[in-house]
Amino acid sequence: MTLQNPLFQDKVIIVTGASSGIGRACAIHLAHQGAKVVVNYASDEEGGQSALDEILSNGGAGILIKADVSKEHDVNAMFEETIQTYGRLDVLVSNAGLQKDAPFLEMSLEQWQKVIDVNLTGQFLCCRAAARQFVQQVENGSTNAHSELSVGKIILMSSVHDIIPWAGHVNYAASKGGIMMFMKSISQELAPYKIRVNSVSPGAIKTPINQEVWSDPDKYKSLMNLIPYKRIGTPQDVAKAVAWLASDDSDYVNGETLYIDGGMTLYPEFADNG
Ligand code: NAD
Question: Which CDD domains does this UniProt record tie to the protein (predicted)?
Answer without folding.
Answer: GlcDH_SDR_c (cd05358)
